[in-house]
Design a protein that fits this description.
This protein is an all-alpha fold. It folds into 2 domains: 88 residues, RNA polymerase sigma factor, region 2, helix turn helix motif (Rna Polymerase Sigma Factor, Chain: A, Orthogonal Bundle), CATH 1.10.1740; 71 residues, Winged helix-like DNA-binding domain superfamily/Winged helix DNA-binding domain (Arc Repressor Mutant, subunit A, Orthogonal Bundle). It has 10 helices and no strands. α1 crosses α2. The longest helix is centred in the middle third of the chain and has 22 residues. It starts with a helix and ends with a helix.
Length: 186
């Protein structure tokens, strides 16, 4: 069966035909995803965007245009991934993602001061984590972490350390993994 014939079956309501086409083109989506990167996102996020593009290509394909489905699907997948990369770079929703809801009650001032014992234990824990994490990080990871904690974006950090944005993202991922490992061992 050609892709165009499978599309006809999909339009007739066949869910099995949809699964067939998705299974056939899933590998293409994964291959295309390897060429893209979204700061702060996983490879699976790019693949998911590609799958959305594939669904859109199935929905919007018009055989009367004379373009093979595969070509149309590749264009839709690429455009969806590019749109996701551009949206991620704009950081348009950063304030929404890092804000606190107004409906969440503020802790009362009495709860701001902690028990002295808890404060000491918390201080010791922070010191332990800081000491061990710093010794586990490379110089590059330490510099990237410091710049990230000072509020710089991935692009700004990349400019300062003269590396590309992907290497900044990779460095911060390594820092997170090392911190998680340290906390699990603690």
């Amino acid at each position: 069966m050609t892709d165009e014939e499978v599309i006809k079956e999909i339009r007739a309501g066949s869910a099995r035909a949809t699964d067939t086409l998705i299974t056939k083109y899933k590998k293409l989506v994964k291959i295309k995803a390897g060429a893209y990167f979204i700061a702060g996102a996983d490879k699976e996020d790019i693949i998911q965007e590609g799958m959305i593009g594939l669904f859109k290509s199935i929905r919007d394909f018009n055989p009367a245009k004379g373009v093979p489905f595969r070509t149309f699907a590749e264009i839709c997948v690429n455009r969806q991934m590019i749109s996701a990369v551009k949206a991620g770079a704009r950081q348009k929703h950063l304030p929404l993602n890092t804000s606190m809801p107004l409906s969440q009650p503020m802790p009362s001032p009495e709860k701001w001061s902690a028990d002295p014992e808890e404060m000491l234990i918390g201080s010791e824990d922070r010191h332990y984590i800081k000491e061990h994490l710093l010794s586990a990080l490379s110089a590059m990871e330490l510099r990237v972490l410091s710049l990230h904690l000072s509020g710089l974006s991935y692009a700004e950090i990349a400019g300062r350390v003269k590396r590309d944005v992907k290497s900044i993202d990779n460095a911060l991922r390594r820092v997170r993994r090392k911190a998680e490992k340290l906390l699990k061992n603690e």
